Amino acid sequence: MNELFEKLINNTISKTEYEQLMAYINKPDTAVAVKEMLAKHWKNVKQYDEKNTDSERSFQLLFKEIEQRDAISKIKHLKSFHSRRRFQIAAVILVIIGTFLLNRFSNSEIDEIDKKGTIIPNGITLTYEDGRVDTLLEEGSQKIKSANGRIVGAKKGNRLEYIGQPAQKELVYNELKVPFGKRFNLVLSDGSKVTLNAGSSIKFPVQFIPHKSRVISLSGEAFFEVVKDTKHPFVVKVGELNVQVLGTQFNVSHYPEDTIANTVLVEGAVGLYKAGTDLSVTASTKIQPGQKAAWNANEHNIEISEVDVHQYIAWKDGVLLFKGMPFHSIQKKLERHFNVVIDNQYQLMENQIYTVTFRNENITEIMEAFKLDIPFEYTIDDNKIIITEPKK
Amino acid sequence: MKLHTSRKKEQLLALKRGDKAAFKWLFTMYEKKLYAFIFSIAKSDYVAEEILQEVFIKLWMKRETLDSAKSLDAFIFKIARNMTYNYLRGVASQEALKRELWKNIVHNKEQEDDKVLLENYEKIVSTILKDIPPQKRNVFILSKQQGKSNQEIADLLGISPKTVKNHLWKTLQIIREQAKPHLQKIHSFILFLL
């Protein structure tokens, strides 16, 4: 085992050896031996300078963390002190102190780390299990903590990543909301990746629990890359529909105003079934890569068709791709993508069919492009665009 | 860490009193080694930073129980060892974490390999450069290793940009020619660098 441990350190361990070593560490009676190996390694470890942080800042962050924990333990202390006789009053004091601390932290933070309780209009928000709401900025990094102060994930740039934790007994949910005009990336605790399109929200467990399905709920549109785990099926709930997969890439789209939920499969296999029922071979519908399943919520049926997958997932790379799509559908997508409201007063445009791709164009350039096809007039005022018949 | 034995004693006593400056001194002192230790096992910058932070938090919390007769090294190591062990045990008991660590091992391995290849390549190139006329060699070093533009090099050496371009081209030809037999096993991306 010593040899395998050394190989682990040097990154020369093979997959089989790795499994062997992990199985060994997982045994309850090997703790002393493993700690012994760690001790030996401590003596050999060379101090290297690759750690790329600035020490001053690391220390400040560390001390802030300590102060925060100190404050929490003081509150707990206060609570137990008062709880014997003056329980109700203690509770009030607790709330006030709690709020005070929260505000103090948010004001004194350097950069944007842990901006608790500050909500920026039209920002990307994360709602915690205890109801706290954080605004996630698209730049910089933030740490994500559970109610008990444990770090469960981190946000770097426009990506929020939850880390796997030792097994938990209870499912705890966070909710991520992406407003119009933005997109965001999420990595769940099992490593599955989710790209959220504008105007979408997703509710997911901070940590998946062994022997249970991985269940998340979605409103809006998201692209999933699910880590394969046959023991723990991955289920996406969209309205009344459950999309179940084992490990695969697919796109699900179901905005509140949609009657149809579209699931497009890129890779692997997915099954769809009505919420409240179990996924069994008879009740579910399966689709193959390159197919789209359209679930009609009003008629309770699923229609399957072959599609050009790229058309449905181009959005995740920031590309607006419309193929043979009527303007009224394009309008919805533009509104979400740019966070604008489009008021189309020109009847003729409504059902006009377009095939067009936009990459980095802004909304004005896009309007100009549409104008080349059928002439029309438009005004942009703030976030509102009004389309009118061309003057004769 | 053998250095400053008496200084350490002093700091340890100050830490026991809750002296923040002493804590900071210790942090700067141990940060790199601890990081190296934890990273060599956890293989992820993020995890290593987290554990590192926990180690120091624990050290701060337990400062009053520090035994000034014993070595600080041993005390800090014990905390780091236990936390790293807990991490390893957690990984070993959970499929998702186990996969994650494996992924990071593979990733780190690839990075190391690339580093070795790059070093090899640099060695080969510098051997070849030795036999190249000084003017051409200078042009190559200024361009490829110091990232200067042709115009800058021309100004520096008092030659025309066109001569710079010619020199560069010829040197690259020679390197390509001579390095080829050595570079067969090396990644295509290095050949691209040439």
Give the amount of beta strand of chain A, in percent: 25-35%
Oligomeric status = heterodimer
- Total strand segments of chain B: 0
Intertermini distance of chain A: 86 Å
Low-pLDDT stretches of chain B are: 186-194
Helix content of chain B: over 70%
Give the averaged pLDDT of chain B, no decimals: 82
The CATH architecture of the largest domain in chain A can be named as Sandwich
Principal-axis shape of chain A? globular
CATH class of the largest domain in chain B: Mainly Alpha
In CATH terms, what is the fold-level topology of the largest domain in chain A?
Jelly Rolls
Major sheet attributes of chain B: none
Helix content of chain A: 25-40%
What's the story with the biggest beta sheet of chain A?
A: 18 strands, mixed
Second rung of CATH, namely the architecture of the largest domain in chain B: Orthogonal Bundle
Query: Helix segment count of chain B?
Result: 9
Count of discrete alpha- or pi-helical segments spanning 4 or more residues of chain A: 9
Given helix and strand content, the structural type of chain A is alpha+beta
Radius of gyration over C-alpha positions of chain B, nearest whole angstrom = 26 Å
Features of the shown structure:
heterodimer; A: 392 residues; Jelly Rolls; 18-stranded mixed β-sheet; 3-stranded mixed β-sheet; 30% helix; B: 194 residues; Arc Repressor Mutant, subunit A; 2 domains; 9 helices; 79% helix
